[in-house]
Design brief:
295 residues; alpha/beta; Rossmann fold; 2 domains; 6-stranded parallel β-sheet; 3-stranded parallel β-sheet; 10 helices; 11 strands; 16% strand; binds NADP nicotinamide-adenine-dinucleotide phosphate
Length: 295
């Protein structure tokens, strides 16, 4: 078996066409959705990611601004920046680019974002609402993963989804999405992490395997069953002197080997990444619609 490639770029393009229709309605009312991204420090992978968001936003007409802050910024100063953005009506959405430097308390920082502007679903209030099955901003990466599955014909309903990784931005919210009694969800979900015993015995049970561990080739051919659907969230940078930026991205899955057994698999890059950016754009439009009272 050679796996079908789940093409995140073309599915993202399909959603962006739908977003343009939403944008046209807002433009008629003179509303331009606007996103503020806070970047602390100068991490090259983060800058590349934010440039990707800027391009995507530009394509559909969303205004995006990256606010660069020094790596040494004090927590109180960062919280003040967020407070200013919360009360700045020019911006409908606020996102924080991770990773943050060690001296900053992530929980405090994400909790400072107003839930009305929390377009990346990072605030504990947004995450709590997600778990309760209430209307909220869903974090963009897991929202994109759900869309990848549904739009490529791999409905999670009734399936055993195994998620490797329990981060607050991918693993936990994805579990929250897929266990809901809703269309596009209704899955049986298992979460794995570094204390999971005998990981391969669990990953081999997956009908759908989502991997977000941040380690190249963490999932090998022996760890999956024939016919599995694999979503590789990993974005690991490896040196590449032949690339103009001197690095390239690889995923968490041994792509060549696992493709021989999987029925479908996402590539890295070109799988989850474009969907993440697109869902962030969708949430920014939603935030602008909510502010305008049209939702
Ligand atoms: P993270 O905060 O780095 O946490 C990694 C998770 O994986 C932790 O829960 C950890 O377990 C678990 N883990 C690590 N090694 C493991 C192993 N050998 N076996 C089982 N579990 C293991 O995770 P993240 O922020 O979700 O990022 C994960 C990856 O996804 C990174 O490569 C990141 O760059 C990428 N990412 C991509 C996108 C995108 O849009 N494409 C978006 C977000 C993240 P413990 O909890 O026990 O430590």
């Amino acid at each position: 078996m050679v796996a079908k490639i789940i093409d995140g770029k073309s599915l993202a393009a399909e959603i962006r066409r739908e977003l343009r229709a939403e944008m046209a309605k807002l433009e008629k009312r003179g509303i331009i959705p606007a996103l503020a991204a806070l970047l602390v420090g100068e991490d090259s992978a983060s800058l590349a990611y934010l440039r990707g968001i800027g391009r995507g936003c530009g394509e559909v007409g969303i205004y995006m601004e990256t606010i660069k802050l020094p790596r040494e910024i004090k927590e109180a100063e960062l919280l003040l920046e967020i407070e200013k953005l919360n009360s700045n009506s020019s911006f409908h959405g606020i996102m924080i680019q991770f990773p943050l430097p060690q001296h900053l308390n992530v929980d405090k920082v994400v909790s400072a974002i107003s839930p009305q502007k929390d377009v990346d679903g990072a605030n504990p209030i947004s995450l709590g609402r997600l778990l309760m099955g209430e209307e909220t901003f869903i974090p963009s990466t897991p929202a994109g993963i759900q869309q990848l599955l549904v739009r490529s014909g791999y409905e999670p309903s009734g399936k055993h989804v195994v998620i490797c990784g329990r981060s607050n931005i991918v693993g936990k919210p994805l579990m929250g999405i897929l266990i809901q009694k809703q269309v596009g969800a209704n899955a049986t979900v298992t979460i794995c992490h570094t204390e999971t015993r005998d990981l391969p015995s669990i990953t081999r049970q997956a009908d759908i395997l989502v991997v977000a561990v941040g380690r190249p080739k963490a999932i090998t051919r022996e760890m999956v069953k024939e016919g599995v659907v694999v979503i590789d969230v990993g974005m690991n940078t490896v040196e590449d002197p032949s690339s103009p930026r001197k690095f390239r991205f690889i995923g968490d899955v041994d792509f060549d080997a696992v493709s021989q057994k999987a029925v479908a698999i996402t590539p890295v890059p070109g799988g989850v990444g474009p969907m993440t950016v697109t869902m962030l754009m969708a949430n920014t439009i939603k935030a602008a619609e909510m502010t305008a009272g049209s939702r």
